[in-house]
Amino acid sequence: MTVAVYDPNNIFAKILRGEMPAYKVYEDDQTIAFMDVMPQANGHALVLPKAPSRNLLDADPAIFASLFSTVQKVARASKKAFDAEGITVIQFNEAAAGQTVYHLHVHIIPRFEGVELKIHARDMEKAEILAANADRLRAALKAS
Ligand code: AMP
């Protein structure tokens, strides 16, 4: 059996090193959050631990407290920023489960009754919409 290992050149590792741009909304010593560029709903954001792991399966459990503290912070701010009726929190592990980027991350998706999610990681959102949503979410996080 081949064991999948962490690839330090994955796109989120590059964002974490500042080698790729992102619509960043939050950062502390252990976590970072930015907008998903192919959102499944308006306002879709991602929360990552800075510590490297492919996903939940190989992560050090010591990171979960800080990761989920930021997940809760961003989820609460997202609900306010986008006036959402609910927030879906999703996390995928390996390709068979739908994972496409191999640095652990948690999806935070604003939801409204009767509105289906768009297809995962397919359609790129316009830069001006991503920037405006990042501004809204950042402002709600600052006010929290
Ligand atoms: P997953 O399939 O759970 O690994 O999710 C990866 C997510 O990252 C998808 O929802 C993509 O739309 C999103 N994504 C891919 N590249 C970028 C990027 N450069 N910046 C922000 N989000 C990205």
What does this structure look like?
- By secondary structure, the chain is of the alpha+beta class.
- The protein has a five-stranded antiparallel sheet.
- The chain has a single domain (11-143), classed as HIT family, subunit A, CATH 3.30.428.10.
- Strand 1 and strand 2 form a beta hairpin.
- It is built from three helices and five strands.
- Helix 2 packs across helix 3.
- The protein has helices spanning 11-16, 64-81, 127-143, and strands at 24-27, 31-35, 45-49, 86-90, 106-111.
- The protein binds adenosine monophosphate.
- Adenosine monophosphate binds at residues 11, 22, 34, 36-38, 92, 98-101, 120-121.
CATH superfamily: HIT-like
Main beta sheet: strand number and arrangement?
5 strands, antiparallel
Strand order of the largest sheet: 1-2-3-5-4
Could you tell me the number of beta strands?
A: 5
Instruction: Write down the Rg.
Output: 15 Å
Which descriptor suits the 3D outline? globular
Strand content: 15-25%
The distinct ligands, each listed once, are:
adenosine monophosphate
> How many distinct folded domains?
1
In terms of per-residue confidence, which ranges show pLDDT below 50 for 5 or more consecutive residues? none
> Given this structure, which CATH class is correct?
Alpha Beta
> What is the name of the CATH topology?
HIT family, subunit A
Helix and strand run: HEEEHEEH
Average pLDDT confidence is 97
Q: Structural class given helices, strands, pairing?
A: alpha+beta
